[in-house]
TrEMBL record:
The keyword Glycoprotein does not apply. This is Carbon-nitrogen hydrolase. GO terms for molecular function: N-carbamoylputrescine amidase activity. Transmembrane segments: none annotated. Coiled coil: none annotated. PANTHER family: BETA-UREIDOPROPIONASE (PTHR43674:SF2), NITRILASE C965.09-RELATED (PTHR43674). Pfam families: CN_hydrolase. One of its GO terms (biological process) is putrescine biosynthetic process from arginine. The keyword Hydrolase applies. It comes from Pedobacter frigoris. CDD domains: CPA.
């Protein structure tokens, strides 16, 4: 029976990039002290969520990957013997930027990066202004403790992305994310939005027989217009909630996942076995009509 302890770091951020990185490192230490072997940080954890506005000055927040933040985190990963999943604003070249997650193994080595594939462009989430869609495809990373799949925030809504990641052999799917409520919304809308967000990700666990770990930020940003809703969670391979974070507090939680459950659930609910892959060609169309 293979078990892995994962750490979820749900925190608020400030305008100070170094302060956020230092806080994240303290949270990684806290998670490791609680027994975590793999620690996932939230999306773009070194800054406020800057995509609420289209501002050229925000490009100054970007950095190379590998680069300063991964250098600092590699030292911590090696010292603590933990895998770190670090979501960062990547400057790839002059004028070319990505929303990217780096994976650092427990010996401090840099395993590679995943670039966010699905990029939103909604009110207060103007990511297409900043981020070029990922061109590395979907990725899994063989770490010391498990083979992990990484997807980022807006990727959460797409079963195609989770399916491909699972088919590549991911033992666990991690989703660093940054999503919240407009503070002028009513509570019923808030609940509906959070429930939809959680439900779609739990469905990825059910459909693929893989545990899902989703880590979101908390706190008021955008001059109080946005409350990032926290609610980080971890499921088993059947979508059962093992941990659920609060909507308004920083939390560092460690959850034990039984990776052997995937084999059990895939035998008893054989969704992967019963897939009609010969019938799926139309999925590559934008829409199935006469054009």
């Amino acid at each position: 029976m293979k078990k892995v302890k994962v750490g979820l770091v749900q925190m608020s951020c400030t305008k100070d990039k170094q302060e956020n990185l230092d806080k994240a490192i303290l949270k990684v230490r806290e998670a490791a002290a609680k027994g975590a072997q793999i620690v996932c940080l939230q999306e773009l954890f070194t800054s406020l969520y800057f995509c609420d506005v289209e501002d050229y000055d925000n490009f100054d927040l970007a950095e190379s990957i590998p680069g300063p933040s991964t250098d600092a985190l590699q030292v911590i990963a090696k010292e603590l013997g933990v895998v770190i999943i670090a979501s960062l604003f990547e400057k790839r070249a002059e004028g070319l930027y990505h929303n990217t997650t780096a994976v650092l193994d427990a010996d401090g080595s840099y395993l590679g990066k995943y670039r966010k594939m699905h990029i939103p462009d909604d009110p207060a989430y103007y990511e297409k202004f900043y981020f070029t869609p990922g061109d590395l495809g979907y990725k899994v990373f063989q770490t010391r403790f498990a083979k992990i799949g990484i997807l980022i925030c807006w990727d959460q809504w797409y079963p195609e992305a989770s399916r491909i990641t699972a088919l590549m052999g991911a033992d666990i799917m991690f989703y660093p994310t940054a999503i919240g409520w407009a503070t002028d919304q009513d509570e019923e809308t808030n609940k509906d939005q959070y429930d939809a967000w959680q439900t779609i990700q739990r469905s990825h666990a059910v459909a693929n027989g893989v545990p899902v770990v989703s880590v979101n930020r908390v706190g008021f940003e955008q001059d109080g217009a946005m409350k990032f809703w926290g609610g980080s969670f971890a499921t088993n391979a059947q979508g059962r909630i093992l941990y659920l974070g609060s909507h308004d507090k920083e939390e560092t939680e460690v959850v034990e996942l039984n990776l052997s459950d995937s084999d059990f659930y895939r035998k008893h609910w054989p969704f992967l076995r019963d897939r009609r892959i010969d019938s799926y060609q139309p999925i590559t169309k934008r829409y199935i009509d006469e054009d």
